[in-house]
Amino acid sequence: MRRLSDELCRKYRLSVIEDPKKGKHYSEWLAEKQKLPTRRSLIIDDVDRAIDNSMTFTQFIRNLKSIGYEVKMNVKYMAIRPPGSEKFFRLHNLTKDELYSEENIKLRILNNDIGFQDTIQKVKPKTYHYQGNMKKAKKITGFRALYVRYMFEMGILPKNAPNKKRVHFLLREDLRYMDKITQETTLLCKKKIETIDDLDREESAVNDKLNSLVKERRCVYNKIRRCRNPDTKEKLQRDVATLSEEIKGLRKEVKLYEDIKVRSLSMKNKLTKIKEERKEREQYEHRRRNSRSGRKNVIAGD
Asked: How far apart are CA 93 and CA 17, in angstroms?
């Protein structure tokens, strides 16, 4: 399409973009406009932390790997892959000014002492907190337990938790969806939904009510078309406005049920992946401690 468009533009002496550059995805542009964290801004935040805590470029690479990043070196453009991501991100493409090129990163590491990092604009994610006493809460299961566990892993529950661990990259991404997650959690708790059967039953009931109101509104519309009395017609129009508002609310509720089905699967997969990563890390640390202990015993024996 671009080739045909360029040929037509040249034919009719119109301007042609000779060196087109790839723009941002709409969702990323919208998130930045609304000051919400994006995958790119989360990567930049992690890279900044790794730079600020490094005195050498080798230490910078080691810092990235310590928080789960895979680093691709010995290529034309150095690239990194955050934990849970399927693709690599070239460092020099993180920003338009190539502030994160390999050369500029090395310069920043050398200039750590003069506060070079203060010139960087960072997109800070919103902070969310849960209100209430978790110790007094009743035991919950199913969907509600899943959502609460997920929010706990995101660092939102419990509030002001001691020894707070760094939130996994996969979960920090969902900070941009916290408003939706909060709405879904509220609905699950309000309706006391725990199983998929509970969810299907509530969704079916709301759909039945929604279809009934849509039919009722259609009947009122028909009455308005046949009505000749201005006062009666005005009253019917108010009825339509009331029905429309209720229908709008029910449609939003149905959308929440659909989103819960999709998001709950994503939550389970992410929590499972994080659990497996932690288990592998613990096994690695255990083997390393045993290896160190073995070397000390050999030295002591000598």
From this structure: 21
Sheet holding 79-81, edge to edge: 70-72, 79-81, 89-90
Question: Which tens digits make up the pLDDT trace of 95-133?
Answer: 888 888 888 888 888 776 444 444 444 445 455 555 666
pTM: 0.55
- The identity of residue 28, as a single letter, is E
Q: If you compute the radius of gyration of the chain from its CA atoms, what whole number of angstroms results?
A: 28
Q: Is 64 exposed, middle or buried (0-12, 13-18, 19+ CB in 10 A)?
A: buried
The alpha helices in the chain, defined as continuous H runs, are 2-11, 26-33, 39-52, 57-66, 102-110, 142-153, 169-172, 178-191, 196-226, 230-301
The owner of tokens 């990563």 is 277
How far apart CA 142 and CA 82 sit, in angstroms, is 30
